[in-house]
Amino acid sequence: TLVFLAVVPARAGEEYSIDPAHTAVGFKISHLGLSWTYGRFNDVAGTFVLDSEAGKCSFNVTIKVASIDTGNQKRDEHLRGEDFFAEKKFPTMSFKSTSVKAVKDGYQVTGDFTLRGVTRSITFTLVGGRTVEFPRGVKRTGFSTELTLKRSDFGMDRFKDAVGDEVYIAISFEGTKK
After folding, report:
1. What is the predicted pLDDT for the residue at 76?
2. Which residues pair with 37 in a beta bridge?
3. Domain limits at 25?
């Protein structure tokens, strides 16, 4: 089997679509201070623009709340409900960058994260950005990041004695050039 893989430099203003088959949004949160509950969101979509001038880069992502998956259907239904994500009222969460700066091995990204109708500015570092052609003729790139958010900042303040306030998030995604 012959696999073609070539490293290709990013050009000005190239737009990419997030590849859901090669994207993961995972999280962990404390349960009773005894153990961790792990989960992921399975429906992630978005676009991003890469430019040799970092200030012209942008990242836009939407996650469907209904796609939460902790491996326990009863818990997932509870998380979708009013006590946590209120999925019927707020079916998506989203991120839209407002500032992108070049840093070693990637970008420092600041933007508006909206969850449960609450929008807060967050900043994180995206690592990666190497661009390849795979399969032949399909230009793709990828990034990863880890960050921590407080669920109470977004109106999720129920069950504080049982469920931690800090949510640890790990994100890895690839995009294909449009």
Report:
1. 98
2. 29
3. 6-177
pLDDT-above-70 percentage for the chain: 94
Domain assignment of residue 156, yes or no = yes
pTM value is 0.90
Token digits of residue 44: 């992630």
- Position 3 pLDDT exceeds 70: no
Q: Whose CA is closest to 42, among 16, 60, 59, 21? A: 21
Question: Is pLDDT at 42 greater than 90 in this prediction?
Answer: yes
Number of domains observed in the structure of the chain: 1
Q: Give the Cβ contact number of residue 176 at 10 Å.
A: 14
Asked whether residue 160 is domain-assigned, the answer is yes
Distance, in Å, from the CA atom of 15 to the CA atom of 25, rounded to the nearest integer, reads: 21
Q: What is the CATH number of the domain that holds 41?
A: 2.40.128.110
Q: What is the mean pLDDT of the chain?
A: 94
Six token digits for residue 141 = 């790139």
CA dist 59 and 176 (Å) reads: 14
- Answer whether 170's CB lies under 8 Å from 19's CB: no
Residue 114 in any domain: the answer is: yes
CA angle centred on 153, ends 152 and 156, rounded to 5°? 35
Report phi then psi at 160, rounded to 5.
-60, -30
Q: Look at residue 1 and tell me if it is in a domain.
A: no
Measured in whole angstroms, the distance separating CA 17 from the mean position of its chain's CA atoms is 13
